[in-house]
Amino acid sequence: MDGNKDEALRCMRIAEEAIASGKRERALKFIKISQRLNPNLPASELLDACEKLGSASPGSSVVERSVNTAENGSGPVRSHDPLSGEKGYTEEHIQLIRQVRRNQDYYAILGLEKTCSVEEIRKAYRKLSLKVHPDKNKAPGSEEAFKKVSRAFKCLSDNDSRRKYDQVGLVEDFEHNERHNVRRRRRRKRTGHDLFDDDLDPDEIFRAFFGQGDLFRASHAYRSRRTGSHGREEPDTSGFNFMVILQILPFLIIILLAYLPFTEPEYSLFKNYSHQFPKITEQHGVEYFVKSSAFDGHYPAGSAERANFEDNVIKDYKNMLWRYCHVEMQRRLWNKKLSTPNCNKLQNLGVA
């Protein structure tokens, strides 16, 4: 029951943000979902605000009335949340979120000039991300603003993407071009994390930059948007059939594999139940594991067969290090203090 109540509270907060943005249909949708999950939650005031959206601007909503009250008086603006008593937000928080969401230039979002250095970009991101983080800034739209700040930092901290952005000059045009390029590359071959893929996780950038877990609370987490949804994951009331298929799929795969011919590889770079016998390549001293103690009889040391075999081992080892090194270099764009052990191993093997 507590789980339903928490989910209902979250739906009510989404409805409040929708009212603040003038999205009446979206607000009504989540109010109805919250009422189904927990009928005891008060929703009359939010429903009244939704009705007024049809005849008035979003400024007449519950959230905006709170803002107007603070502008005429003094003290903090409090979000009208009768559900959880959550701490309110100030007028400064609201103005900051509006400013970030309104800006259509990455440099302006971070408050920088186009001639700024990478270090200035890092300092600006450090300062602004702490101010708009959804766990610190409770104003409506803070998650969208936090994501926009993360996009600005991720773009400008990378030399290639910054050069492309400078040629376009507008966020909307640049992101449209990048998404088009991502879809085109996907049709050819699925690559790693593209800069403006839909999988952008602002919290991952935040954690990598500050070199620690969530700075405000451990329970906050962003969902990777691999399904094309925006912001936090929203309740899915129509995914039952898909979830059933996902549950059955492992059993279908196991049955299929049982009837397929399967040959285990002759070696592995890691020790497992099939490959228990350690060997070391003559060149570079790369450790690998084989299936049988009779391996030396099939591939005598110093023979051409053994040399060809170990060439394949070294090639696989380099490919594995290159993948790990690529991830390390990507993360180092966000935090220069992170070490790159796999890149160092590649250099020792003579690979640039």
Automatic annotation (TrEMBL):
Record keywords: Membrane, Transmembrane, Transmembrane helix
Gene Ontology annotations of biological process type: cellular response to misfolded protein
Pfam families: DnaJ, DUF1977
CDD domains: DnaJ
UniProt cross-references to SMART domains, sorted A to Z: DnaJ
Membrane topology: Single-pass membrane protein
InterPro entries: DnaJ_domain (IPR001623), DnaJ_subfamily_B/C (IPR051100), DUF1977_DnaJ-like (IPR015399), J_dom_sf (IPR036869)
Source domain of life: Eukaryota
Keyword Translocase part of the UniProt annotation: no
SUPFAM superfamilies membership: Chaperone J-domain (SSF46565)
Positions of transmembrane segments: 240-262
An example Gene Ontology CC term for this record: endoplasmic reticulum membrane
GO molecular function: Hsp70 protein binding
Residue ranges occupied by any J domain in the UniProt entry: 105-169
Subcellular location: Membrane
Keyword Transmembrane helix: yes
Protein name: J domain-containing protein
